[in-house]
Design brief:
Shape: elongated
Helix content: 40-55%
Strand content: under 5%
Distance between the termini: 42 Å
Largest sheet: none
Radius of gyration: 24 Å
Oligomer: single chain
């Protein structure tokens, strides 16, 4: 049996006409949500910084405060949830 050769058509990345917009995976709203998620993550990681001691013989209990132990992880979880939502959200007009 002979194998039939199939030719693939080249797909251009340029729009077909000047009024056509290229198709992007994300919409403007998706990028907005991603920036909000990055803001939450940045604040969460910054709040987690610190609590160390300059003197190795002295233990600093400041590392176990509310900010580092509770608030920061909550902000990080919120940031990751918003990021997942931003990635999974379909742009308007897409089925």
């Amino acid at each position: 049996m002979k194998k039939e050769k199939t030719r693939r058509k080249a797909v251009s990345a340029e729009p077909k006409s000047p009024t056509d917009k290229p198709d992007f995976a994300f919409d403007k709203q998706n990028y907005k949500w991603l920036l909000i998620a990055l803001g939450f993550l940045l604040v969460g990681f910054v709040l987690m910084i610190g609590g160390g001691s300059d003197d190795p013989n002295v233990f600093n209990y400041g590392m176990f405060n509310f900010q580092r132990l509770t608030l920061s992880p909550i902000l990080l979880i919120i940031g990751y949830v918003i990021g997942i939502y931003a990635i999974m959200k379909k742009p308007k007009g897409v089925n």
